[in-house]
Design a protein that fits this description.
The chain has 304 residues and is of the alpha/beta class. The chain has three domains: 123 residues, 3-Layer(aba) Sandwich (Glutaredoxin); 86 residues, Alpha Horseshoe (Serine Threonine Protein Phosphatase 5, Tetratricopeptide repeat), CATH 1.25.40; 83 residues, Alpha Horseshoe (Serine Threonine Protein Phosphatase 5, Tetratricopeptide repeat). The longest helix is centred in the C-terminal third of the chain and has 17 residues.
Length: 304
């Protein structure tokens, strides 16, 4: 693992270094006032019952990530911590106040669109160039092209530019898996903030990691194939063969093995084959050719 890759892993979950953080009345002086002496801090005043707040928050998070560490987002739940909002005279939410050098310098109210949020941030820090977006495109191209080592370097660089970019975390983990570095892949995913756990990029990488670890404990591929050839009803062997094939990138063959189990005995192992196939879909992604084809075949088996 290169120095760039090593540096990227702890940044994904570095305590105190998060670009998006929850702030309380007690931590406000440290997380906002002190931090704003180094770079602007946007304080997002919100509440769980506020619909527009739920629309604005992901827009803010994306814009802050795109700024490459030049600005921080501090989220304050006014139901739990009303004091600061009261001192600032905030009477309507969502409200965003920008702090610089320890003082509030600008702000806005309401759920602004992404373009206006970006413009607001650029007033504070200048033009924002999303370095990570181009790096992610290059990384995905390298990974698809079979250059896992090059992809890992590019994903790591993207993660350094945007430390909480889910696509960079998931991509770096997948690149590590392609290189056979399972522990490094787990380190990347374990460092991901809890709020990103359901992100498709993180979920797909974790499904791929689970699949790789599952495959590591299986027997010899030829032995499994031989058991299936000698006994077509040996569903356990066919199931293990499917997992082994998937770990080798033979997606169509892996899906086919599970679909054959479903065709022969849909309820086998409490629908173990169907559940495993769905895990394949998670790991491969919804638009992967093998996923699309296997999903059609699965639908035909289940509903015909």
């Amino acid at each position: 693992m290169s120095e760039a890759q090593q540096a990227a892993i702890p940044q994904a979950g570095k305590p105190g270094g998060a670009l998006v953080r929850d702030v309380t009345t007690a931590s406000f002086r440290t997380d906002v006032i002190a931090e704003s002496m180094n770079r602007p801090v946007l304080v997002d005043f919100w509440a769980p019952w506020c619909g527009p707040c739920k629309q604005l928050t992901p827009v803010l998070e994306k814009a802050v990530q795109s700024a490459g560490g030049k600005v921080v987002l501090a989220k304050m739940n006014i139901d739990d911590h009303p004091d600061i909002a009261g001192r600032l005279g905030i009477q309507s939410i969502p409200a965003v106040i920008a702090f610089q050098r320890g003082q509030p310098v600008d702000g806005f109210m309401g759920a602004l669109p992404e373009s206006q949020v970006k413009a607001f941030i650029e007033k504070l820090i200048g033009p924002v160039v999303d370095e990570s977006a181009e790096l992610l495109i290059q990384a995905e191209t390298a990974l698809v092209g079979g250059d896992a080592a090059g992809a890992a370097e590019l994903f790591a660089a993207a993660l350094q530019a945007a430390p909480e970019e889910a696509k960079a975390m998931g991509g770096l983990a997948r690149a590590f898996l392609e290189l056979g570095e399972t522990q490094e892949a787990r380190s990347v995913l374990d460092a991901a903030p809890a709020r990103l756990a359901a992100d498709p990029a993180i979920a797909a990488a974790r499904a791929a990691l689970d699949l790789a670890e599952q495959a590591a404990g299986l027997g010899d591929l030829q032995d499994l194939a031989g058991r299936v050839a000698s006994n077509a009803e040996d569903h356990e062997a066919r199931f293990d063969l499917a997992v082994a094939l998937a770990s080798l990138g033979k997606r169509d063959e892996a899906a086919g093995a599970l679909l054959e189990i479903i065709r022969r005995d849909r309820k086998w192992g409490e629908e173990k084959a169907r559940k495993q196939l769905l895990q394949f879909f998670d790991a491969w992604g919804p638009m992967d050719a093998a996923t699309v084809q296997a999903r059609r075949r699965l639908s035909s088996l289940l509903f015909s």
